[in-house]
Amino acid sequence: MRLTVNCFSLFLFLFFLFLNLQTLTLTGFMVVEESSVKFYHFFSLLFIPCLFLRSENKLLKVPAYIFEYFAGITVISILLFLVYPFNRLIINHLFAFYAFIIGYYIAGAVPREQIMNVLQKAALLVFIIIVGKLLFHIPEIKRFMKAPDGHPDIYTLYGGGTNLEATWLGLNTALFSNRKRLFYLLLVVTLTVSVIYASRVGVVIAFLVAGFKFISATTSRQERRAIITLGLLSLLAFVFFIDLDNLAEKVYALQRFAEFGDSSDKGMAGRFAMWRYYGTALWESKLLGYGAGNGIYAVESVSGIDYIEDNLHNLYMQLLIEFGFIGLFLYLITVYNISIKALKSRLSNPIAIILLVYFIASLIQFRGTDALIWLYMGIFLAIESNKVKLAAHDQ
């Protein structure tokens, strides 16, 4: 008995959709972020029988550097938990590995075109839900526009608030990089949502995605010429016809860019408040780390300060202080291998753009347990592996 390709596609559609509905739990949507079993955790269990229905009589082989990374941080955490407090975030890391296996397995059995079609349909549904959701928050949006401070109080589908929702919208926009008109429409939606949310990172990620789309193999010369022409015209319009100072006063998102790094920038102030103790905490661990999820515990134990943040807002710093130099090194090997494959593909695979932007955005957020990203990684590596096998077979 074997599951059909249609069943794989349906599972991928729903699993990807539920991974985007991050605040959906077994009891409904969370009003505030809290520790809870998410609906996608429960739904993912339906995939376990698939692992025993392979046509080949052998285990699923994932890339060695992926297995070594997860095996390494698991062993490191188990040893460090003998000294430091146990943190359940290690379970999130293991689930991320499970999400990778799901993506790697399905992309090995389903054609690339079908995979991308499924992901695009699910992502488009998420875009529609978010835009529709904003209509119910018009009173709050109007209030925020009149007296902006931080971010508007809007319920989000993604854990972590409006900043993370704008981030994921920007990343998912890249899925449509081979759909010219739809890509630019969704890029405008992403930028609009990021401005409403006053999310600097959302705006930056949207432009990063657009930049990688510009240099990708899917962009024609005519399209590049049109983009350059429109860009130059827009620049001239801003220089000669638009009062940037006046515009920044009216658009709070632009004002937040102008405030970057100064005393009124609460976001960066919070990061600097943690990072000032980072070196001391890292040195006290002898560069061996504190175990999964104990990054904030490390700086709190050194500083004696309780921070409201649950991560260091820099994935590479987070991995170094939690898993030491060994854990960070294993992750950088993964980043290197995936980045090389992405660049060799000339970014013709939309997921390559997502992963490269994620690696860059990890300098200011994320904590490495993003199951959605690891699903993307599994799909991307399986697709690239299939391309190599197909090329070798044709020879």
Q: Helix and strand layout, with pairings?
A:
Blueprint: H1 5-20, E1 24-25, E2 28-29, H2 39-44, H3 64-80, H4 89-109, H5 112-135, H6 138-146, H7 162-173, H8 180-196, H9 200-215, H10 221-241, H11 244-250, H12 252-258, H13 266-275, H14 278-284, H15 295-303, H16 315-344, H17 350-361, H18 371-394
Protein name: O-Antigen ligase
Membrane topology: Multi-pass membrane protein
InterPro entries: O-antigen_ligase-rel_domated (IPR007016), WaaL-like (IPR051533)
Overview of the structural elements:
With 395 residues, the chain is an all-alpha fold. Helices cover 67% and strands 1% of the residues. It contains 18 helices and 2 strands. It has helices spanning 5-20, 39-44, 64-80, 89-109, 112-135, 138-146, 162-173, 180-196, 200-215, 221-241, 244-250, 252-258, 266-275, 278-284, 295-303, 315-344, 350-361, 371-394, and strands at residues 24-25, 28-29. It has a two-stranded antiparallel ribbon. A hairpin with a 2-residue loop joins strand 1 and strand 2. The longest helix is centred in the C-terminal third of the chain and has 30 residues, at 315-344. The chain is globular, with a radius of gyration of 22 Å.
- Which residues form runs of ≥5 with pLDDT under 50? none
Mean pLDDT: 85
State the helicity in percent bands: 55-70%
> Would you tell me the structural class of the helices and strands?
mainly alpha
The spatial strand order of the largest sheet comes to 1-2
Order of helices and strands: HEEHHHHHHHHHHHHHHHHH
Residue share in β-strands:
under 5%
Measured between the Cα atoms of the first and last residue, the distance is: 33 Å
Number of helices: 18
Measured on Cα atoms, how large is the radius of gyration? 22 Å
Shape: globular
Oligomer: single chain
* Biggest sheet descriptor: 2 strands, antiparallel
Number of strands: 2
Count of discrete structural domains: 1
